[in-house]
TrEMBL record:
One of its GO terms (biological process) is late endosome to vacuole transport. GO terms for cellular component: phagophore assembly site; phosphatidylinositol 3-kinase complex, class III, type I; phosphatidylinositol 3-kinase complex, class III, type II. It comes from the Eukaryota. GO terms for molecular function: phosphatidylinositol 3-kinase binding; protein-macromolecule adaptor activity. InterPro entries: Atg6/Beclin. This is Uncharacterized protein. Transmembrane segments: none annotated.
Length: 57
């Protein structure tokens, strides 16, 4: 901002920024939970021939 904010405007802006930070922190926690779940799963990797067979189905 090029100009200073009045006290009330600063409080409103600060409140909105705090809400955004809270939203981002919730998103981070949800992402980390999904990532941990995915990392805990095991996956069977198909060979090239198995992949080609699956592709033809």
């Amino acid at each position: 901002l090029d100009q200073p904010l009045c006290l009330e405007c600063m409080r409103v802006l600060s409140g909105k920024l705090d809400e955004e930070v809270d939203d981002v922190n919730r998103d981070i926690k949800a992402y980390e939970a999904c990532l941990q779940q995915l990392e805990g799963q095991s996956f069977d990797v198909l060979s090239e021939s198995e992949f080609e067979k699956e592709k033809m189905k």
